[in-house]
Amino acid sequence: xxxxxxxxxVRLSITVPPELKAFAQEIAKETNTTxxxxxxxxxxxxxxxxxxxxxxxxxxxxxxEDDQFAKESVGVIQKxxxxxxx
Length: 86
Hints:
Blueprint: H1 18-30, H2 35-84
């Protein structure tokens, strides 16, 4: 049995300058969709960019922490290794 996820939509009231409303309507007409779909697509793209930015920041932080750990580890290994030659 195959189940499908139903996407429930909710209403969002926003206020935009008239030129943005006209632009959304123009793009909607050109793409044979609705202004709501255009706004939804823009919000999805913004959400994607936001998540991407957060991931980049996370991995940059992790890389710095890993670099610091590696530097500290090298110092410990050098001390241990130098004691072997004694």
